[in-house]
Amino acid sequence: MSTAAAGTPPVTVDTLNPKVLKCEYAVRGEIVTHAQNLQQELQKNPDSLPFDEILYCNIGNPQSLGQQPVTYFREVLSLCDHPALLDKSETHALYSSDAIERAWQILDKIPGRATGAYSHSQGIKGLRDEIAAGIAARDGFHASGDNIFLTDGASPAVHMMMQLLIRSEKDGILCPIPQYPLYSASIALHGGSLVPYFLDEETGWGLEVDELKKQLEEARSKGITVRALVVINPGNPTGQVLAEENQKKIVEFCKNEGLVLLADEVYQENIYVEDKQFHSFKKIARTLGYTDDDLPLVSFQSVSKGYYGECGKRGGYMEVTGFSPEVREQIYKVASVNLCSNVSGQILASLVMNPPKAGDESFESYMEERDGILSSLARRAKALEEAFNSLEGITCNKAEGAMYLFPRLHLPQKAIGAAQAAGTAPDAYYAKRLLEATGIVVVPGSGFGQVPGTWHIRCTILPQEDKIPAIISRFKEFHEKFMDEFRD
Amino acid sequence: MSTAAAGTPPVTVDTLNPKVLKCEYAVRGEIVTHAQNLQQELQKNPDSLPFDEILYCNIGNPQSLGQQPVTYFREVLSLCDHPALLDKSETHALYSSDAIERAWQILDKIPGRATGAYSHSQGIKGLRDEIAAGIAARDGFHASGDNIFLTDGASPAVHMMMQLLIRSEKDGILCPIPQYPLYSASIALHGGSLVPYFLDEETGWGLEVDELKKQLEEARSKGITVRALVVINPGNPTGQVLAEENQKKIVEFCKNEGLVLLADEVYQENIYVEDKQFHSFKKIARTLGYTDDDLPLVSFQSVSKGYYGECGKRGGYMEVTGFSPEVREQIYKVASVNLCSNVSGQILASLVMNPPKAGDESFESYMEERDGILSSLARRAKALEEAFNSLEGITCNKAEGAMYLFPRLHLPQKAIGAAQAAGTAPDAYYAKRLLEATGIVVVPGSGFGQVPGTWHIRCTILPQEDKIPAIISRFKEFHEKFMDEFRD
């Protein structure tokens, strides 16, 4: 007897893959759907709500809030999309000469100059070599294009590694809490166990190796095979930048415990404090004398972050070192099943890892755009942090890097009670009320994980600088009313 | 005790996800790696091999073999990548006026005109609406942008559906044999069971509903829950175009048996025979009177195929109809975890579904490019088919559509013996010998599946037309020598 004959629809939520049902992705979750509905309402009836626009501070999406792309990068992409332009004299009136030269160089790296062809499954070899040269210049240690896998942003790269490493729920991945929900979602989708380690809010979201050890032992005692450690540096949603000494201890820990180190380094250009610098985990490992034979290490990078913020281009790469040739072959195979990442994204990844140099025609304007964005982000981070810290019942660590603040909400018992009555987590309740009062969209801390009984929100630092004062005053006004309503 | 202390490397092939190990992807498999090695050899030492170039007939990658992109599409992409051009008068000297107008229209559909922002998880709403309008114009039935999910090519869309539908190896997906190995790979990666149905080579790769029924019953008798039927139309690797009556029976079969119909329609523009036409399965279902409530149906489309062949752009979509809102929400969630597909690919998908119209400035040159490519492909398909059929021990069905021929090799027993002695399948042995003698890369039939005891190769029709005579003569010469060597 057929299913249909029995009257059951072929597919219901109950007959979907339960791993999909289990997966959650707060950054685009319920609160965002609610915001989109309010936005539609606002379009239909502009006076219906107590604000005139929705401010999406839920996601690291700089250009959606008005950040302009870097001109040089877009010139090169535009030329590579339409190479016939390169033969025309009029082109020089519209494009800078070094962008034209760079487009030629890139086309020469592409077999047949065919930007519309599937590339090698790892990405175009010449572009991978250029990225490797950029990594070597950054780190002072050799890098090889053979170790680069170009991907459509960092997310598919993370999925790929989870798919390779996770066999069952008995395989665990050590992840920071709070974490970027891509990790929890990907681990859930691939059926593994997230083994949490807690960042210490008191010490500026410190990552303590003792905590890693404790959680590793605890997972092992439950029969979990811990396969990898995820570190996000600079941190998301927490914004801390790890100290070099700390990174060394983390590398030693992975080496001693036989863990793959999955290093999310997509915010490597986003550092806002004088006393901190970005060091890649590969540089740290090589500084310690570890070679390719000692430690499996994957570094994720993306064109979506940094000062470029090219989220829509979906470019990125992972640098894969320390695996056997046989394992590498399996990574290659999984990459092959999707053929290749998009070639424009590949080109852009090579550009961000090898931007204009001093002496190039575009160098000065490029540096002006770059530094303008980064210094503005630093000012925005500081202004928002100070604003949060000025409010009753909110404490907020500095954003040393990345694109987010993760303030803690010390909520009155009455507010917690109101949330419970509404059947929602207290931080989700707060975020919903904030949205409905101000149009500001933030993500409740519960989407990232937090120490039980503490409550947070993640707020990006990305609204354009001229809007920050208004955002702060809207936020303050809301928060004060909220506290007045619920103060114990 | 830690793993490392015990001396085992953290990751070996034996400790990888066994589903990854099980997955195979012949289109980029062993023979291609061998070809890449020969190509490197050829670069170092041009006289070392009996040919002077490698001809990649293993993969549907038109632009890698010299096909030029459609000018209008690339103009629009180039402008959207660098919108600052749109304000400059010099731009009119380089771009056609309707491409400029179209770029404006597209930018107006993108919130904030931000082509560098993450879009809605399903893709930019205005572009989805344009695609839906294109589908409606093609089919004569309503289509909705809300049902479109834009993806980085068709492959991630197929993975997404497999991930949703497959819970365990007890869930089966009916797939044609021969099939495009994306399906077997994706089913393996998600841990399901491929339930094969055989296409009938005798009747031009006919798809018989009796065969579907037989295989469905057999799978059910083994305790497999068959969840979906994959149909590839036009066929890959088999090139047949289904007749309307046949499609109706397939739709009825899915409806009666409670199966999701997964319709791979990426070759919808590639039809080479007068007496056949493409009909989408959604059109067939609506013609039969079935609505959204009757039948879950997913149609996959890609910018990589057709006359455009923009593989490197990774654009595509799936049109999803007939699922409950709750199931749709889960599809949306999985799409969200990867944020969005690349925006250039999204724009290109909207262009191929809504190309220039009569009266537009670019219309004539566009039609000339389009028809030039399609008619040349038809001639190449015919020339190669006739060549294959002229050879001893080869029979080859017509390529009515798609980009491939799938000739059957009636190999002498001695050749089969030689393959066995070399520890390889007879068709893989033949493909390797062909590559080493001629530089022509084809994929052994075993990578697609075939009736046991039959042997095939898949060869694309994509080498440029002026090269076809030389390819045919190289192929003939090789084949005759091969037969002379092994004739029983």
UniProtKB/TrEMBL annotation, chains A, B:
Is Translocase found in the keyword set?
Answer: no
Listed under catalytic activity are:
L-alanine + 2-oxoglutarate = pyruvate + L-glutamate
**Main EC class of this protein?**
transferase
What are the entry keywords?
Aminotransferase, Pyridoxal phosphate, Transferase
Q: Which cofactor does it need?
A: pyridoxal 5'-phosphate
Molecular function GO labels: L-alanine:2-oxoglutarate aminotransferase activity; pyridoxal phosphate binding
Q: Which domain of life is it from?
A: Eukaryota
Family statement = Belongs to the class-I pyridoxal-phosphate-dependent aminotransferase family. Alanine aminotransferase subfamily.
Listed under subunit, the entry gives: Homodimer.
Could you tell me what this protein does? Transfer of C3 units between the cytosol of mesophyll and bundle sheath cells to maintain a nitrogen-carbon balance in the C4-dicarboxylic pathway.
Protein name as catalogued: Alanine aminotransferase 2
Q: List the source organism.
A: Digitaria exilis
